[in-house]
Amino acid sequence: MAWSHDGRMTVICYEDGFVLVGSVTGQRYWSTVVNTAQAKISAVTWMPDASHVILGTTAGNLILMDHHGNTTDGFSLSTQSITQLLYSCNRFYPGAPDNSASKFVNDDYVLACSLENGQVLFLNNYQDQSPISVDTELQNIKMDWSSPGEILAVGGHTILHDSSYINQILFYTRRGEFLYRIQIPQT
């Protein structure tokens, strides 16, 4: 599930390929079933301007769908399962006046894509065939961009030889440059 960056729409995806887009008031805009050919939908995000939805699959593919639910593009990004997709743009802030809302230009943002093997790809756009690849050496990672979209936090853990683990948060620039690491104590 993912909210559009302006906070007006949500997309809900199911592993079986069913995709549903609706409004914050509960109105259904469109729904469809995506045939992913033996792969499951594993991640979803909106383009910054909310014109398209990008789906990630367990086969490492990206699928682009327009505002009517039509598949408009798709390609293989990796052989690894895609676990999360996030654009580096501001999110909707409740109470913000409408006149302060900025227009989104999709090329101004970076798309971060996490893979099951702990890699994070930094794409200049969803069609980037040469993304910057970073091996976080973490498992079960979750990511989030800072509010201005300049820093990506990647959280996860490393399993040690004695089956204990270390929780960590790694911070990267929009270009995939490592900034610093924080270890989180086990609880």
Automatic annotation (TrEMBL):
Q: Give the principal location in a single coarse category.
A: cytoplasm
What residues does the IFT121/TULP4 N-terminal domain cover? 1-186
Repeat is among the record's keywords: yes
Q: What UniProt keywords are attached to this protein's entry?
A: Cytoplasm, Repeat, WD repeat
Tell me the SUPFAM superfamilies matching this sequence: WD40 repeat-like
* GO biological process terms, semicolon-separated: intraciliary retrograde transport; non-motile cilium assembly; protein localization to cilium
Q: Gene Ontology terms, cellular component aspect?
A: cytoplasm; intraciliary transport particle A; non-motile cilium
Q: Which residues form a coiled coil?
A: none
- Which compartment or compartments is the protein found in? Cytoplasm
Per its UniProt entry, which superkingdom is the organism in?
Answer: Eukaryota
Q: Which protein are we looking at?
A: IFT121/TULP4 N-terminal domain-containing protein
From what organism does this protein derive?
Rotaria magnacalcarata
